[in-house]
């Protein structure tokens, strides 16, 4: 009879410890699912990872106001914060799924699979999805997580000796009542029950040890596999890196003029005239930086007014007349005094020349298209006025940045650079097509999200030193910074101390009107708290307005100021 009871081992009631372990099981299953998916994505396409695919979908559906807040609050770490938030949400859901599986083992495992299907749908519906293969990482990861959860919960739900006590007592009590002996004591029953309880306790410990062993083993194995996948990288990424390493930039037919000696001021704390590539700001929606193979890259030029559609390789572009120019870029998300502006030396081909060769004419010459829509390999679309691109400014299809091929983070192999326009309406990175159309016919990515369709750069100035809430010593303090108004140039910069009169700062020599200018002002600082304010006047004679505005819909404006406390004196 005892042997029969042990063999049947009916399912028992879950304890508090079981519920805690079930929650842990849900977390481990979710972790293994993501790790396996990440490993598979490293061999398929990193962008097909479920966290990246779902994150991209979230970015596309996030209100512009919230995106702008994220950039202001987290800066270039906004993407990492988003992915962390997704992981935390998944962790909470995983705990719930683990508890569900404790009650309904199959249903809980099926829930893991359902999330895998959602990840797969997000991956294959992304604008940059290349094929249905993008669904594989999510589906394989979900299968691994669902199987693991089923196994783990099985360890917790395994019936144990002594678990039949309740059912056996009920049956025995019924039979005893019918026989009229319900209160009769059975010899040896108490010792048998105690033995069963002891065996049940030992079985419970063994089951939990088995649960923890399986969870730890699979978790460590998944961690190792995912780490290996990241270390090795995907074949596509390796090929892209090799193509960049092998690229030799052509000598420019029109090199950039030497930077005037007086354009670079040697003032501690001031932004360097040329921003190093590693320090150049990056603001985009790509959760994974696209790694494009330069040998396979193609640029398609088509649309209204194009005489004949063109498809160009990188070698085709580099064989054309190349020019080199110093150009300052600015992001529309840059608040007054913000960091999202930088100056670099770009190498590329004049975009206007390519358009004219294809038969394109600007609207002022009767052309049918007033908007140029550039499309990135990740699906981003950026709309640029055709008139601005073809008005004689140095609008480029750039493949070089500060003497080297574009870094992947900044658009390798080719990006657009148009001086005088904010990046979201001009600076398409990882570009793969250019379509000529109209603003009435098509809204680029940012326009339906509340941003203006056209956005010339606004005149701005910034105090780089002293830093906000700095504590300089009394005496002569060098106030310094940068000012920019691309394609208009900077004519004058003025500084004000507290509510005193405006004092003209010394401007560094101008490189071109498409670059920022450094400036300095020697301030005789007296002890106490002071507010330093700066304003700039552009090449047209227009001075920055005082009132600060938000970045939406077409860029912030207003005077930048810093508060410092001067130390020293009697």
Radius of gyration: 33 Å
| Most strands sheet | 5 strands, mixed
Based on secondary structure, the structural category is alpha+beta
Q: Give the oligomeric state of the chains in this entry, treating copies of one chain as homo and distinct chains as hetero.
A: single chain
How many strands in all? 18
Number of helices, counting only DSSP H or I runs of 4 residues or more: 13
Q: What is the beta-strand fraction?
A: 15-25%
Give start-end ranges of low-pLDDT stretches: 1-10, 163-186
Q: What global shape is seen?
A: globular
Summarize the structure.
The chain is 38% helix and 20% strand. The protein has 13 helices and 18 strands. α3 (50-61) crosses α5 and α5 (78-103) runs antiparallel to α6.
Can you characterise this structure?
With 570 residues, the chain is α+β, with helices and mostly antiparallel strands. The protein is 38% helix and 20% strand. It contains 13 helices and 18 strands. The strands form four sheets. The chain has a five-stranded mixed β-sheet. Strands 3, 4, 7, 8 and 9 form a five-stranded antiparallel β-sheet that branches. A hairpin with a 4-residue loop joins strand 5 and strand 6 (381-385).
Keywords:
about 575 residues; alpha+beta; about 40% helix; globular
SSE layout and pairings?
Blueprint: H1 2-8, H2 16-44, H3 50-61, H4 64-74, H5 78-103, H6 105-124, H7 136-157, H8 165-179, H9 189-232, H10 235-246, E1 298-303, E2 310-313, H11 314-318, E3 323-330, E4 341-350, H12 351-357, E5 371-376, E6 381-385, H13 386-389, E7 396-401, E8 404-405, E9 415-417, E10 431-437, E11 460-465, E12 475-484, E13 490-497, E14 503-504, E15 506-507, E16 517-525, E17 528-538, E18 560-566
Parallel strand pairs: 1-10
Antiparallel strand pairs: 1-2, 3-4, 4-7, 5-6, 5-10, 7-8, 7-9, 11-12, 12-16, 13-14, 13-17, 15-16, 17-18
Helix pairs in contact: 2-5, 2-7, 2-9, 3-5, 3-6, 5-6, 6-7, 7-9
């Amino acid at each position: 009879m005892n042997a029969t009871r042990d063999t049947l081992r009916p399912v028992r009631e879950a304890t508090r410890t079981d519920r805690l372990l079930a929650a842990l099981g849900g977390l481990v299953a979710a972790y293994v699912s993501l790790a396996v998916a990440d490993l598979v994505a490293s061999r398929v396409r990193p962008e097909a990872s479920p966290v990246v695919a779902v994150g991209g979908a979230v970015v596309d559906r996030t209100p512009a106001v919230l995106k702008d807040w994220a950039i202001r609050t987290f800066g270039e770490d906004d993407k990492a914060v988003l992915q962390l938030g997704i992981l935390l949400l998944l962790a909470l859901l995983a705990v719930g799924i683990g508890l569900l599986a404790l009650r309904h083992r199959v249903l809980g495992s099926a829930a893991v699979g359902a999330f895998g299907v959602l990840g797969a749908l997000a991956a294959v519906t992304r604008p940059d999805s290349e094929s249905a293969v993008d669904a594989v990482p999510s589906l394989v990861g979900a299968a691994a997580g669902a199987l693991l959860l089923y196994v783990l919960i099985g360890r917790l739900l395994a019936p144990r000796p002594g678990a039949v006590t309740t059912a056996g007592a009920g049956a025995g009590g019924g039979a005893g009542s019918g026989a009229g002996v319900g209160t009769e004591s059975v010899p040896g029953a108490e010792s048998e029950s105690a033995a069963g309880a002891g065996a049940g306790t030992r079985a419970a410990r063994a089951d939990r040890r088995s649960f923890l062993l399986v969870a730890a083993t699979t978790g460590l194995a998944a961690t190792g596999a995912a780490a290996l996948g990241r270390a090795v990288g995907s074949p596509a990424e390796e090929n892209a890196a090799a193509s960049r390493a092998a690229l030799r930039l052509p000598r420019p037919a029109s090199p950039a003029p030497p930077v005037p000696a007086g354009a670079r001021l040697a003032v501690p704390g001031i932004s360097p005239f040329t921003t190093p590539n590693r320090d150049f700001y990056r603001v985009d929606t790509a959760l994974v930086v696209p790694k494009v193979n330069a040998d396979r890259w193609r640029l398609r030029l088509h649309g209204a007014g194009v005489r004949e559609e063109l498809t160009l390789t990188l070698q085709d572009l580099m064989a054309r007349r190349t020019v080199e120019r110093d150009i300052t870029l600015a992001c529309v998300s840059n608040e007054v005094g913000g960091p999202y502006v930088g100056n670099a030396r770009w190498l590329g081909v004049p975009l206007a020349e390519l358009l004219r060769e294809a038969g394109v004419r600007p609207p002022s010459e009767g052309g049918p298209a007033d908007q140029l829509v550039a499309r990135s390999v990740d699906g981003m679309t950026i709309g640029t006025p055709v008139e601005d691109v073809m008005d004689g400014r140095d609008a480029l299809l750039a493949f070089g940045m500060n003497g080297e091929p574009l870094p992947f983070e900044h658009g390798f192999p080719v990006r657009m650079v148009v001086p005088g326009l904010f990046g979201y309406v001009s600076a398409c990175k990882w570009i793969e097509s250019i379509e000529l159309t109209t603003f009435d016919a098509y809204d680029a990515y940012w326009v339906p999200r509340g941003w203006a369709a056209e956005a010339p750069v606004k005149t701005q100035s910034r105090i780089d030193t002293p830093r906000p809430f700095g504590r300089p010593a009394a005496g002569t303090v060098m106030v310094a910074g940068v000012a920019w108004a691309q394609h208009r140039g900077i004519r004058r910069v003025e500084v004000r101390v507290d509510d005193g009169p405006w004092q003209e700062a010394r401007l560094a020599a101008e490189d071109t009107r498409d670059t920022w200018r450094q400036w300095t002002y020697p301030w005789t600082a007296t002890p106490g708290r002071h507010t330093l304010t700066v304003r700039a006047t552009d090449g047209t004679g227009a001075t920055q307005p005082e009132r600060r505005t938000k970045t939406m819909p077409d860029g912030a404006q207003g005077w930048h100021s810093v508060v410092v406390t001067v130390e020293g004196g009697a």
